[in-house]
Amino acid sequence: LSLYTIDRNRIVVHGQQAGGSMSYLVGFAHRDLIRGVAPLDASLPARAVIKSNDPAERLAFYTFDVKESKLAKASAVGVKRLTAAKYPVMTVQLNDKAGLSDSDRLQFLQWIDSLDRI
After folding, report:
1. Which residues contact 116 (CB under 8 A, 6 or more apart)?
2. Can you list the alpha helix ranges (DSSP code H) found in the chain?
3. Total domains in the fold of the chain
4. Is the residue at 3 inside a domain?
C-alpha cells in the first residue's frame, strides 16, 4: 500500500458467488484495513465469526442479490446476521445475472465514496 496513493477509508473487497463469500472472510479478517465488503450473489459463510460492530474499525456491507439465484435465501440469512450485529448493510436486488446496469454501478460507486462518512 505504501507504493500507491490509496484512500484507506475506501478500501473495498468484492467478489461474486464463491469470491463473494471469500470477500466476507477477508473483510472480517482485516478490519484494520478493509472498510467495505461488496459480495455479489453470495452467501455469508456459516463459519464466519461476526463480532459486534466496532466504531474504531468501521466495516460496511453492500450486497448484490440476484432475484432468481439459488443463493438468494442464504444471502438474506447472512444480511440478517450482519444487521443483528449492528453493521450498516445496503442490499440491492438485481433482476438477473446479466450484470450491473449503469445506475447500479453509479449507486455502488457513491456508496464507496461515502465510506469515509459511514
Report:
1. 7, 9, 10
2. 18-29, 72-84, 102-113
3. 1
4. no
* pLDDT at residue 76 in the model: 93
Cα dihedral 21, 9, 64, 29 in deg (nearest 10): 10
- For residues 45 and 71, is the Cβ–Cβ distance under 8 A? no
Convert the pLDDT of each residue in 62-79 to its tens digit.
999 998 889 989 999 999
Q: Name the pTM for this structure.
A: 0.91
Which CATH number belongs to the domain containing residue 28 in this structure? 3.40.50.1820
- The pLDDT of residue 1 is 65
Per-residue confidence (pLDDT) for residue 111, from 0 to 100? 96
Q: Is the separation of the CB atoms in 66 and 94 below 8 Å? A: yes
